[in-house]
């Protein structure tokens, strides 16, 4: 099925971002990805940049209002927002709290299920499932948590803004990644390549879904990730892939969003199943840019 403004992408589970860090902490010598991708000896022929240069970006057409073709309930985005242990989706009676250490991974907050409607009030007061889910998943989250805390998210306003933008556009990012990596040809490509999306900040944006403008996107190998991050991310995507396979899915991949002006990067994990695959060569870039740059949310 092709994704259009009137339809939703095939369901692909995509949990909240757990590997995100500010590039401000890196040495200038380490930050060479822009040169590698857009320099004269660019090894990746699939990356293209819209010729915007330093010219002013187009202003968001929707201003402070939601795009007319956006889903006002953001149904698909809510469905793809899930507890990192029990995988319950966001919905009526289900909210989430973040890991108190890394402030990134989320866990469900909902009453324990009891035989009598008032039993949980009598026995547990307003206890919730969140601590149980967080405790159970801690062994696998511990390493990710330490990686996430390299740059405190609470001290990085631009990174928080990028994470909100990523969260709003999670469905189209997941769908574009599955198409772009052409997993139907080789499902193992998800362990060696990522979908990279290059952004510029829109200072006049009044909504989180229009806070950035996409200027380029393409599939790149992990080896082009800045020094000090490549091996860490390869190991994390391997573990992500294993975790998803345990839940009955077919694998996991990463989408990397980068803003050069702010030197920030956010990485969104995506879980996928084979029924989400598309034939090789299926278009994806034009629709991705349309959704990101027009602020369309599903």
TrEMBL record:
It comes from Meripilus lineatus. It comes from the Eukaryota. This is MYND-type domain-containing protein.
């Amino acid at each position: 099925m092709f994704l259009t403004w009137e339809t939703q992408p095939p369901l692909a589970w995509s949990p909240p971002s757990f590997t995100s860090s500010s590039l401000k902490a890196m040495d200038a010598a380490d930050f060479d990805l822009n040169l590698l991708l857009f320099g004269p000896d660019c090894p990746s022929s699939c990356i293209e940049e819209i010729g915007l240069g330093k010219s002013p970006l187009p202003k968001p057409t929707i201003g402070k209002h939601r795009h007319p073709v956006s889903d006002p309930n953001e149904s698909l985005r809510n469905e793809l927002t899930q507890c990192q242990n029990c995988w319950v989706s966001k919905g009526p009676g289900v909210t989430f709290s973040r890991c108190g250490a890394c402030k990134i991974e989320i866990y469900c907050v909902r009453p324990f299920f009891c035989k009598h409607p008032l039993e949980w009030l009598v026995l547990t007061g307003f206890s919730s499932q969140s601590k149980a889910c967080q405790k159970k998943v801690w062994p696998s989250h511990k390493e990710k948590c330490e990686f996430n805390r390299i740059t405190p998210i609470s001290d990085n306003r631009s990174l928080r803004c990028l994470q909100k933008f990523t969260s709003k556009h999670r469905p189209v990012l997941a769908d574009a990644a599955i198409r772009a990596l052409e997993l139907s040809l080789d499902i193992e490509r998800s362990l060696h390549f990522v979908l990279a999306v290059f952004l510029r900040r829109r200072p006049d944006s009044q909504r989180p879904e229009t806070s950035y403008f996409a200027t380029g996107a393409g599939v790149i190998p992990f080896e082009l990730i800045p020094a000090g991050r490549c091996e860490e991310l390869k190991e994390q995507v391997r573990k992500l892939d294993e975790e998803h396979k345990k839940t009955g899915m077919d694998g996991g991949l990463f989408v990397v969003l980068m803003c050069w002006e702010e030197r920030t990067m956010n990485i969104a994990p995506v879980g996928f199943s084979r029924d989400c695959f598309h034939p090789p060569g299926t278009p994806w870039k034009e629709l991705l840019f349309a959704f990101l740059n027009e602020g369309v949310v599903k």
